[in-house]
Design goal:
The complex is a heterodimer of chains A (321) and B (331). By secondary structure, chain A is α/β, with parallel strands linked by helices. Chain A is built from twelve helices and eleven strands. Helix content of chain A is 33%, strand content 22%. In chain A, strand 7, helix 8 and strand 8 form a beta-alpha-beta unit. In chain A, helix 5 crosses helix 7. The longest helix of chain A has 18 residues. Chain B has 331 residues and is an alpha/beta fold. Chain B is built from eleven helices and twelve strands. The chains are: A alpha/beta (321), B alpha/beta (331).
């Protein structure tokens, strides 16, 4: 069975004046049907750009190379009309800031109805009923009142529910959620994560969860991909990555997280240094400068990772000795 | 540790919101901080936690006299800061410093970072020579983990983590005795967060400075604080020693906050987490009557709507504001 989404050799470059910024570097991985995959990395790791490229939503000055196949069909750099049959229908996206994804001057009900009419070909009455149904599905408190509200009248958590309702209206195969809870308070974050887990169980939607927060990914995801400097550093099932990380970067990230179980009397084992510059491409491993187990080889030869086989793997010479 | 360095008594902060109508304008009052009292000892870190609109930032600013309190007192080493003369306040300000959440917007983009760090010295120690000032800045750069030749750079040449180190250097250069840190690591990447947390802890060990550590992140807060204060809609819900509050929270809101923290544990499912604390945070313009938390509280009774719960001291340095804290304990 071919995977739902197959990404091969994807690179994304931005023209910035006379320099080139590389956001995604030769990335290859699969998203299997029904899975929830966490794409984890710090700012500039390339996690958002990977999926913006896949959906043809890159900025004007960006170029994508490689291949992205949805159910075996190439979708990278294809004409907009071809993508329109997928976007919003088969693949939906939810962003960090729900306010920027909603039209400020239209009532929430209108916006959901519009999606129902456009994508599902419903008439006005059916669309109205569908909008109400969707708001109830995402457990919106007082759905009736929300239909007539403008986005600014809703709280951050409620807006995110609206975005998820909009995303789920066509029962997509794949929901890409880009930092969906980062702007929310913890108790509201818990509500939204719970909602995503429910959506997945009830509608069997595959989910890509893009996040900087390892803890958020831990509960929801089956598989985890760790990105750094535009490259895939480690890939495996959630329990593999969390309990026996193979890449020193993953191990360092996990160790540096303060948790409710860590001993507050000792210093946090921080990763020293800064993330590398996206304008520079080094011949070796991008993490070498910050790695405690760095070897001479790491600076000259780039370790490779073949993750699409689905096994637990890391792009690190320590694993290929 | 002797008497408290800082005493905050029934502090209130109000913001006036003017709504311009067609024929009239009416003012509404938003009470951001509502009768908060606590003490802070020398060398102690008090963590302040709460969600949006709980008043944690306003509280920090009111203590530093950056916003005016509408009632209550802030007493710093025996001096009532709101009622002292301007000269004394300026002098005391060198002892009270702040570090903000967004390090880049807190630094003047047109000033070399070395000058940014030396500026407080010009104000608070105008007598020292330029050479001495330079030496102090260089020493401070090294203490916060920056190279001395970086002083000539401008803020945009530095990463967010480095900018936060510069902000901390600027705050520490006057040798303050209280540092208010308002979400100092929230805007930073995970790998940098730990660096800054460790730096703040080291500076506290070296100087014995007291810290008010404001954060929405309980895991970070637990790591940084000796005591923790939980706020909700401007009011104090619970305050107590770190371990006591985390191991045995008495307020249902503290319990819910702790339960809502996602842990880096693959066995924890978010299914059902949605029920941990249902509902939304009410508007601070129109807070619920009685206990402000009652609209989301799992153990609220009609009494909670009628009467505001008192700050009850249930153990040494453990206070709770809940009618039913005895019940919350057994949950």
């Amino acid at each position: 069975m071919s995977p739902l989404l197959e990404i091969r050799g994807l690179s994304v470059r931005f023209d910035v004046g006379d320099a080139t910024l590389t956001a995604v570097r030769d990335l290859s991985f699969d998203i299997a049907e029904g899975q929830c995959v966490g794409i984890v990395g710090e700012s500039g790791a390339g996690k958002s750009q990977t999926f913006l490229a896949a959906l043809g939503l890159l900025a004007e000055n960006a170029k994508a190379e490689g291949s992205v196949r949805y159910r075996g069909r190439e979708i990278l750099n294809v004409p907009r009309r071809e993508l329109d049959t997928l976007r919003g229908r088969r693949i939906a996206m939810v962003f960090q800031d729900p306010l920027s994804g909603l039209t400020p001057t239209l009532r929430v009900g209108r916006q959901i109805e519009e999606a129902a009419r456009r994508h599902l070909g419903m008439n006005a009455r059916q669309a109205r009923a569908k909008a109400r149904e969707m708001l109830e599905t995402v457990r919106m408190p007082d759905a009736e009142h929300c239909l007539d509200a403008y986005p600014f009248e809703l709280s951050g958590g409620m807006r995110q529910r609206v975005m998820i309702a909009l995303g789920m209206i066509c029962r997509p195969d794949l929901l890409i959620a880009d930092e969906p809870t980062t702007a929310l308070d913890v108790t509201i974050q818990a509500q939204i994560l719970g909602l995503l887990a429910e959506m997945r169980r009830e509608l069997n939607t595959s989910i890509v969860l893009i996040t900087h927060d390892l803890a958020v990914a831990a509960g929801l995801c089956d598989r985890i991909m760790i990105l750094y400097n535009g490259r895939l550093m480690e890939s495996g099932t959630t329990s593999e990555v969390f309990t026996s990380p193979k890449h020193p970067y993953t191990a360092g990230l996990l160790a540096s997280l303060p948790s409710l179980a860590s001993d507050p009397a000792t210093d946090l084992p921080a990763i020293s240094g800064q993330p590398p510059d996206a304008f520079v491409t080094t011949p070796g491993c991008a993490f070498a400068e910050r790695c405690l187990q760095v070897m001479d080889r790491c600076r000259i030869e780039r370790p490779v990772l073949a993750a699409h086989e689905g096994r637990h793997a890391a792009a690190c010479h320590l694993n290929t000795k | 540790m002797t008497g408290p360095l800082l005493t905050v008594e029934s502090l209130c902060v109000d913001y006036e919101q003017r709504r311009a109508g067609l024929f009239s304008s009416r003012a509404r009052t938003l009470r951001a901080v509502d009768g908060i009292s606590f003490e802070l000892a020398e060398g102690e870190t008090l963590g302040i936690v709460g969600e949006t609109g709980c008043g944690k930032t306003s509280l920090g600013k009111a203590i530093l006299q950056l916003v005016k309190a509408s009632a209550g007192r802030v007493i710093w080493r025996g001096v009532d800061l709101a009622r002292t003369d301007a000269e004394t306040l300026t002098r005391l300000r060198s002892e009270l410093q702040i570090v903000f959440q967004d390090p880049l917007s807190a630094l003047n983009p047109r000033m070399p970072v070395g000058e940014i760090v030396s500026e407080p010295l010009r104000v608070h120690a105008p007598d020292i020579s330029a050479k001495e000032r330079q030496a102090a800045v260089a020493a401070m750069f090294e203490r916060v983990g920056l190279r001395t030749e970086m002083t000539r750079g401008y803020p945009n040449e530095f990463s967010a983590g480095q900018c936060q180190r510069i902000s901390i250097a600027r705050a520490m250069i006057t040798q303050p005795r209280l540092l208010v840190c308002d979400e100092p690591v929230s805007a930073l990447d995970v790998s940098i967060q730990a660096q800054i947390c460790n730096l703040l802890r080291r500076l506290q060990r070296e100087t014995g400075i007291s810290i008010l550590f404001i954060s929405h992140d309980l895991s970070v807060l637990r790591y940084m604080s000796h005591r923790v204060m939980v706020l909700y809609l401007g009011r104090l819900m619970e305050i107590g020693r770190r371990d006591e509050l985390f191991d045995n929270p008495r307020h249902p809101y503290s319990r819910a906050l702790i339960d809502a923290i996602p842990e880096a544990d693959p066995n924890q499912s978010p299914l059902g987490m949605a029920d941990a604390l249902p509902g939304e945070i009410p508007s601070a313009l129109d807070p619920p009557s009685g206990c402000v938390f009652r609209t989301r509280c799992p153990i609220a009774t009609p009494e909670c709507a009628r009467e505001r719960p008192p700050d009850e001291c249930i153990a040494e340095s453990h206070r709770v504001s809940c009618h039913h804290w005895r019940q919350a304990r057994s949950q």
